[in-house]
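Handout, page 2. Input:
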Amino acid sequence: GEHEGKGEHEGKGELEGKGEHEGKGEREGKGEEGEAVPGCSEEEKEEDEKEEKEEARVRMVIVMGMVCLLAMYICGYILESNHVMLIPEAGAGILIGILVSFLLTFFDESVRTLVQFDPEFFFIYLLPPIIFEAGYNMKRQAFFRNIGAICAYAFIGTTVSTFVVGGIVWGAGQMNLCHKLGGLASLVFGALISATDPVTVLAVFQKLKADVDLYSLVFGESVMNDAVAIVLYRTLVQFKCPENFNAGGIGMAFVNFVVIFGFSTIIGLFVAAISALVTKYCDMRSHSDLLFLELCILCTFPYIAFMLAEGFRLSGIVSILFCGIGMSHYTYNNLSEDAQESSRKVFKVAAMLAESFVFIYLGLSVFTFPKQSFKLFILVVVAMLACLVARLANIIPNSALVNCFRKTGQKPEPVSGKFQFVMWFSGLRGAVAFVIAVVSWGHQDFPQTSDDSGYSDSDCILTTTLLIAAFTVFAFGGPVGIFLEKWDLREKGADEEAAAYEGTPGLMGRDRSQPVPAVGGVYFDRKFIKPVLTNYEFNEGAGPTDQPPAQRIGDEEMN
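Output:
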């Protein structure tokens, strides 16, 4: 036994010594009886090296993205400082993205693939902060004063726009004027391209202090029709199965649209109510020393609303929008003053980063996705003209409908012809439309090719949306300021409105010594809902001046 053990030990030592002196591969590749040592083969080494190189490339792409963001903000700062409005900040981001995209054409395919859109990443991490901030930071008094008009433009107008754009694009294809999109693909394209995204226009509105009702109409329609377009896209995609396309299927699609939008809204408002109760009974208003904990708690609720709706196969975007509106109306009043001010800024910064990222990648996509043919260029022109026609079909009839219920000299005023033109001109496409197109392209909703161009319908939808979004940002984003100044469409009480937003005297030109009337839904909210979700105490016939300062915040700044 000692002899055998000694021999085995010596043999093992000789083998290890031989491996050390005769070659690295033999030492790592062989064991006591010639068996391979796990994890040490040449193939596995090569695989590890590939993974390391891939990780290094990903890190460099992230650095490139951060540099692009920095360059975009520096350009925006220079443009803002010199009062240059014809070139918007979003346009600068697109140009930077196009330049970097062109430079990437000199690298191999693996690098270009890394900078392409990841639909799930954009839908889960970039869209939610954009939509939530829009609901949380909106001027709700003007928004709800125009809610009827906003719903008309967003719901009726987006539906009309979908069929007008889809019909024109499909008809042009059938006449061999451009690439032939299928009928359902044309409608889906009409739905996603109807999502207006006037980020650039609203920035100009804020600088020039545009009329508050005009601002609310453009902003409100944009926020609402983003959600409508997403739900409409999801509804139309269900008709990919031919058996669903019948009278019963169309009826069920309408019911499905209402159910998705309605229950998504309920989930968003429910989560907002929970957040209000949590902040109320934790008495956060009295703990300004816990500012960062307040902000951390606030940031969790929007994504709870988003993921909860998505988990039930509803619309997370609709849910997080109404969660933002509800939190701004109730939860905001339960926060300390520092948290109130900081929360607005934190959510605004998050939304700006997400929007900027989307615009940069919109430019990056120009050369990283398949090149455009002449037929696709014609399709882009036809689609652009269709968008302009559809925008007219939305604004003019709906404005006439809205004006039937408005009277001159009363707030809100009838929608004038100048307002209608600016609203038509402000209907540019951007981040939301492009992201929906990317999601559709990633799922390959329409892989079929209708002609011999070699491009699938999904490829054509993505390329067309990309170019239209880039074009409208430059063509319509900056020049809208010219019409505001030429037609004097600035808020007559702009100074008072700005003062109200900062919490100083001058709420919408109203004398605060007079009670703010509470009628209809406002009365019900103040008497039954607000006292439950906030520290507000309702007093019949009393205005906000009769309440303690901390209880007046919701009525003054946020309403």
